[in-house]
Amino acid sequence: MNQTAESPLFIAEEVICAYPISTFYDSCPRYLFYALLLATCVTRWTGWLADVFLGAAATYAGTAAIQAFILVSNPPKQPPSGPITIPLISNNTSLWDDFPALITGTDQIDLNPASLDLDADAVLAIVVTAYLTFLPLQCWSRAFSYERARYILFSLWHVLMLAGSICALIYWPTLRNTPVQYTFCYPDLAPSTTVSSDGWESWQRTTSTWNTSVWDIFSNATTFNQLPGVCFYPCFNTTQVLRQTTSLEAVVASGDYRVHQRSRFWDVVVYSQRYIYSLIVLTMVVNVSLLLFKVLPYHSRLPSAQVRCIWAERKNILHGLKKDFRSTIYISRLHRTEVIEKTRQRLSVWRPAGGLFTLHAAGLWIRLLLDTAILCTLVFSIIVSPLTVIAFVVWIEYYIHQDGPSQETPKQVGQWSPLASIGFLLVSAAVLKLKYRVAEREELDEEIGRLRGELRRLEKMRSERGCDEP
What we know:
Layout: E1 11-19, H1 27-42, H2 48-73, E2 82-85, E3 108-111, E4 116-117, H3 119-140, H4 148-171, E5 181-185, E6 194-196, H5 210-219, H6 221-225, E7 231-232, E8 249-252, H7 259-295, H8 307-312, H9 314-342, H10 347-350, H11 359-401, H12 413-433, H13 435-438, H14 441-464
Parallel strand pairs: 1-4
Antiparallel strand pairs: 1-5, 1-8, 2-3, 5-7, 6-8
Helix pairs in contact: 1-2, 1-3, 1-12, 2-3, 2-4, 2-12, 3-4, 3-7, 3-11, 7-11, 9-11
């Protein structure tokens, strides 16, 4: 074929090769997950109802955490890269009408086949939101800490979310570093806007270099006719863990999706990412500090795990802190007066802080400072934690919105089936909650006998542990 400026042998066009977000992580299941987290926070005093919402949210987030582990531990397999010589096309060519992402003004490009796994965006949204929601609840909600077994179970899930968040945060920046992808077409055969992969085509890499393979395909009509479409997509010869190769899609990178436009978008993301990450770190520091106060062998008079009690007793707590402050000042001055009377000669050296170094006064100051620190940290956690969750969800959902429309609408069963499952679970839990009200007399007698046996077993365990004293 004779090549001219308007009719080259083939052209190169920029595309985006990506695996769309799986239906399991699509918009409806994600929004349902956010609603479950909110419902857990609102109903945490009800016990059984919060357990239903927490169980559904934990199962969904746990799956996302496992996928985060797999994504980090299994990097995508990519063919070797190499330069490709392409026909030189001028910038004012008429081919722009059919190829909006046409490569012009150069006769060589670097080809590094790769693909994006957009599940990484959804996984990041799920695990980080779950961690940011339940970290403060574990710190200051009594509903999740009054039973040791419940607290241990919740702590294990907390560790799972922390590990999943770390893995998701490690993997997520790799999306930005994915190289630019290209497709190669005949100038008189424009491709569709979106093309799906038919799977790995090993024959397309006929030689040792991509450059020779591309030229061979378009120089030989027989070879070109073997292509599943009208263009050659090297990125279709890549794989991602947990994804079917046939679900890979290539989209023409026109408009905002071209390299320079995506760079601007990523600059905005990175700029806002600093503030979001700062809020996340601040929330973690504040709430981890509250957890440390629980672990330390210090018994504060503040019920740090009972926010409602603190609010109800706020006047008494503030009055007590003021009273402790006055008592501490009084004792410090009293000790300082005794020191002045007994050691007048050394007073000139230690006068500024002599009274503060007595053990009794120092203990009172430390206790007062710790109680004040716990109160301030708790109040700050209650304020900053919800703001951080809201800011992160808005930020990450805006970013996911840039990935394109959802694969399915809310009408598809894959989107509304989780909601139906949770509805059935709620009905079942409600019926079991009312089992004593609907039970017959014989059932109640059997249940009373069972509970008495369980009570004797628990009393025996308590006695064996040496806790039978009141």
